[in-house]
C-alpha cells in the first residue's frame, strides 16, 4: 500500500521537506532502493549509499543536505531508531483475520472473545478464556484453564501449559513454551551441590547413599503482564507453589530461559540466550545482555545493566552496570582486565630485576 | 616503522580499516572505535611499545593521555617513548 511522504512523517512525529506528496510503497536500504521506495539513511554513514540507489524519498539524519544527496523529498528523523519503530509498524501487513478454523479442536467450555482468530490444528482445552481480538496462529496448544488477554498475538507452535495467564497485547513468537515444569529436584540428604556451595568447594564430593533426584512438582503456573513480547523458542517455566511472573512491557528475546519462581519486573529486556535461574527476582527496567546468566535465588535491583556474557553470582544493587564472570561492576571489570593484560610485562620486568 | 605508522596500524586494525583510510585529524569516533575498542587499542599500544599508558578506562578523556584525535594519540605515545628513553 502506498503512503504519502508527508503522512509517513506525521506518523513518525517528524518533519517532511520537498515533494511531500510523493507516494512510496515501502522502505528499503539506501543502496538497493528503487524509485518508489523510501530509503532509510538515518546516519551520515549511509549518505554515499543513497547515490547507489534510485530512491526519490528518504528518511535522513538531522542536518543532512538531502537535495545534494539526490532526493526529491526527505523526512528528518531526530532519533532514527524511534522513527524505525513507528515506520515499520506503519508499513507492516495486518495479521490475517481468518476467524476460527474448523480444524481447530476447541473444548466447548472455552470462552472465546469477539473477533478472535484461531488457526488450524490448534488444541484449546476446557475453561480456557481468550480475550477480544486475540490472534492465534496454527498448531498452538493451550492447556485447560489458561487465560489469554485481549489482542494477544500467538504465533505458530506456541505451547501454553496449565496455570498460564497472559495479560493484554502479549506477543509470543513461534514455539515459545510457557509453563513447562520447573527444573526442580531434591535429594533425601544434602546433595554435593549444596555442600559445594556451602563450603565454597572445600568439602570433598562423595557419592551419596541415595542419589535419587526427587521431583518437585510445578503447581504455580506463570503470570505474564501486559505488552510483554517473547521471542522464538524461549521458555518460561512454571512456579512451584506461586506463579513465575513477568512484568508489564518486558521484552524477552529468542532462546531465553526463565526458570521457575523467577520474578522479572516491568520494562526489562532479556537478550538472546540469557538465562535466569530459579527463584531469582529481577527489578524493573533491567537489561540482561545476550548470553548473560543470573544464578538462582538472587536479587537484581532496578535499572541494572548486565553486559553480554556476564554471569551474576551474587545480588546486584539497583542502577549498577555489571560485566564478566563472576560479574563485577563494569569499572572494576575493566580495571581488572587492564591489570591482567599488563601482567605479562610486569612479570617479565620483575624477572629482569 | 615509525611510531606514527605503528599507532595508525594498531588503530586501523581495531577499526577494521586500511591504514591508508586513517587521517591524522580523525577522532576515534570518526573511524568507528567505541569505548571498549579504545581499551583494546590502548592495550595493543602498550604491548607494541612496551609502555604503560596512563589512561582511565572509566573516563578516557580525564587521563594524561590525550585521545582526542589520531595525531594526539601519536604525540602522546612519542612523549611516553621519549620519557622511557630518558
Keywords:
A: 353 residues, alpha/beta, ten-stranded parallel sheet, flat, B: 86 residues, Non-ribosomal Peptide Synthetase Peptidyl Carrier Protein, Chain A, 51% helix
Your description of this structure?
The complex is a heterodimer of chains A (353) and B (86). The model of chain A has no long low-confidence stretch (mean pLDDT 94). In chain A, the strands form six sheets. An eleven-stranded mixed beta sheet of chain A has the order 10-13-16-19-24-27-30-33-36-38-39. Chain A has a ten-stranded parallel beta sheet with strand order 8-11-14-17-20-25-28-31-34-37, with no helix packed on it. Chain A starts with a strand and ends with a helix. Helix content of chain A is 16%, strand content 27%. Chain A is flat and about 80 Å long. Chain A has 353 residues and is of the alpha/beta class. Chain B is an all-alpha fold and 86 residues long. In chain B, helix 1 packs antiparallel against helix 2 (35-49). Chain B starts with a helix and ends with a helix. In chain B, 20% of the residues are buried. The A-B interface holds A 331, 334-335, 337-338, 341-342, 345 and B 39, 43, 46-47, 50, 52, 57-58.
Outline of the structure:
Chain A is α/β, with parallel strands linked by helices and 353 residues long. Helix content of chain A is 16%, strand content 27%.
Please name the fourth-level CATH homologous superfamily of chain B.
ACP-like
Please give the domain count of chain B. Answer: 1
- Global outline of chain B: globular
| Greatest interface (CB-CB under 8 A), with counts per chain | A-B, 8 and 8 residues
Secondary-structure map:
The complex is a heterodimer of chains A (353) and B (86).
Chain A: E1 3-4, H1 5-12, E2 15-18, E3 23-24, E4 26-28, E5 37-41, H2 47-52, E6 57-60, E7 73-76, H3 80-91, E8 105-106, E9 111-112, E10 117-118, E11 123-124, E12 129-130, E13 135-136, E14 141-142, E15 147-148, E16 153-154, E17 159-160, E18 164-166, E19 171-172, E20 177-180, E21 185-186, H4 192-198, E22 214-215, E23 222-224, E24 229-230, E25 235-237, E26 244-246, E27 251-252, E28 257-258, E29 263-264, E30 269-270, E31 275-276, E32 281-282, E33 287-288, E34 293-294, E35 299-300, E36 305-306, E37 311-312, E38 321-323, E39 328-329, H5 330-352
Parallel strand pairs in A: 4-5, 5-6, 6-7, 8-11, 9-12, 10-13, 11-14, 12-15, 13-16, 14-17, 15-18, 16-19, 17-20, 18-23, 19-24, 20-25, 23-26, 24-27, 25-28, 26-29, 27-30, 28-31, 29-32, 30-33, 31-34, 32-35, 33-36, 34-37, 36-38
Antiparallel strand pairs in A: 1-3, 2-7, 21-22, 38-39
Chain B: H1 3-15, H2 35-49, H3 70-85
Amino acid at each position: 500500500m502506498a503512503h504519502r511522504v508527508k503522512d509517513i512523517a506525521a506518523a513518525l512525529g517528524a518533519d517532511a521537506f520537498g515533494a511531500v506528496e510523493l507516494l512510496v510503497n515501502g522502505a528499503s536500504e539506501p543502496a538497493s532502493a528503487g524509485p518508489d521506495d523510501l530509503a532509510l539513511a538515518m546516519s551520515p554513514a549511509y549518505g554515499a549509499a543513497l547515490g547507489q540507489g534510485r530512491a526519490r524519498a528518504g528518511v535522513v539524519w538531522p542536518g543532512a543536505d538531502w537535495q545534494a544527496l539526490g532526493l526529491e523529498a526527505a523526512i528528518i528523523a531526530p532519533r532514527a531508531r524511534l522513527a524505525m519503530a513507528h515506520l515499520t509498524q506503519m508499513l507492516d501487513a495486518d495479521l490475517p483475520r481468518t476467524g476460527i478454523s474448523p480444524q481447530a479442536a476447541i473444548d466447548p467450555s472455552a470462552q472465546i472473545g469477539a473477533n478472535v482468530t484461531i488457526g488450524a490444528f490448534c488444541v484449546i482445552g476446557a475453561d480456557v478464556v481468550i480475550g477480544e481480538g486475540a490472534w492465534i496462529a496454527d498448531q498452538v496448544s493451550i492447556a485447560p484453564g489458561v487465560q489469554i488477554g485481549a489482542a494477544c498475538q500467538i504465533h505458530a507452535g506456541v505451547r501454553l501449559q496449565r496455570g498460564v495467564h497472559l495479560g493484554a497485547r502479549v506477543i509470543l513468537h513461534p514455539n515459545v513454551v510457557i509453563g513447562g515444569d520447573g527444573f526442580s529436584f531434591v535429594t533425601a540428604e544434602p546433595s554435593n551441590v549444596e555442600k559445594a556451595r556451602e563450603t565454597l568447594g572445600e568439602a570433598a564430593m562423595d557419592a551419596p547413599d541415595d542419589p535419587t533426584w526427587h521431583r518437585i512438582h510445578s503447581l504455580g503456573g506463570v503470570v505474564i503482564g501486559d505488552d510483554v513480547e517473547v521471542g522464538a523458542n524461549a521458555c518460561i517455566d512454571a512456579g512451584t507453589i506461586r506463579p513465575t511472573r513477568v512484568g508489564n512491557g518486558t521484552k524477552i528475546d529468542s532462546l531465553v530461559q526463565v526458570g521457575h519462581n523467577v520474578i522479572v519486573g516491568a520494562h526489562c529486556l532479556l537478550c538472546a540466550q540469557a538465562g535466569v535461574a530459579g527463584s531469582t527476582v529481577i527489578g524493573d527496567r533491567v537489561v540482561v545482555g545476550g548470553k548473560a546468566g543470573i544464578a538462582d535465588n538472587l536479587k537484581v535491583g532496578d535499572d541494572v545493566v548486565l553486559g553480554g556474557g556476564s554471569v551474576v553470582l551474587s545480588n546486584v544493587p539497583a542502577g549498577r552496570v555489571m560485566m564478566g564472570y563472576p560479574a563485577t561492576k563494569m569499572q572494576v571489570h575493566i580495571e581488572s582486565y587492564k591489570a591482567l593484560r599488563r601482567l605479562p610485562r610486569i612479570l617479565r620486568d620483575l624477572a629482569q630485576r | 616503522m615509525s611510531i606514527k605508522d605503528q599507532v595508525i596500524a594498531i588503530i586501523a586494525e581495531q577499526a577494521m580499516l586500511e591504514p591508508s583510510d586513517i587521517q591524522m585529524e580523525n577522532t576515534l569516533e570518526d573511524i568507528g572505535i567505541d569505548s571498549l575498542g579504545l581499551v583494546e587499542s590502548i592495550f595493543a599500544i602498550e604491548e607494541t611499545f612496551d609502555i604503560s599508558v596512563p589512561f582511565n578506562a572509566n573516563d578516557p578523556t580525564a587521563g594524561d593521555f590525550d585521545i582526542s584525535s589520531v595525531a594526539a594519540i601519536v604525540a602522546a605515545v612519542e612523549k611516553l617513548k621519549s620519557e622511557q628513553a630518558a
